[in-house]
Amino acid sequence: MKTTYLTREESIDKLREIVANVPVGVMLSNLTSLPLGANPMEVKTVDNDGGIWFLSSVESDHYSNIMSDKRVQLVFSHPDEMQFLSIYGHAIIYTNRTLLEELYTASEDQWFDGVHDVKLIGIKVEPSSSFYWDKKQNKFVEFLKNLFSSDSANDSDNETMGRINL
Question: Which of 11, 40, 64, 65 is deepest in the core (most CB within 10 A)?
Fold first, then answer.
């Protein structure tokens, strides 16, 4: 497995690529106590600075946790494509209606009474440390490569891992 160190622009592109493949991750909050808060969250967008945006409710446990401690961990996993992403950062709560309208889609109607629901909030996670693991080729191609290769034990060129610098 080779380690790659990405530039800031490459980091944002890699973050967007993985999140596009895995739009729902787990947000861990309340990081200093057990049990941790763990909630599945759908990414609404990744902004030009690498900020990851979500919609949520003021009645959620993670909202309460973030109000007490802004540190969060995001974990994304796509086992079929061997893509994994771990992000540590700080969460910021937003209540700006214009911003919420930009992020809101019809799929949120299952959770809210429309975009003007007073419980609706935006959460932006600003990453401070991130790491990813990503397979370059799918399992079938890797299987064929290993089947016809005399050195099937060394498949390190098929995997990349790296630190995302935001």
Answer: 65
**DSSP assigned state of 36:** P
pTM of the predicted model as reported, rounded to 2 decimal places = 0.83
CATH, residue 158: 2.30.110.10
List, for residues 28-73, the tens digit of each pLDDT value: 999 999 999 999 999 999 999 999 999 999 999 999 999 999 999 9
92, 134 contact by CB (below 8 A): no
153 residue type, one letter: A
Specify the number of domains making up the chain.
1
Range(s) of the domain holding residue 57? 2-164
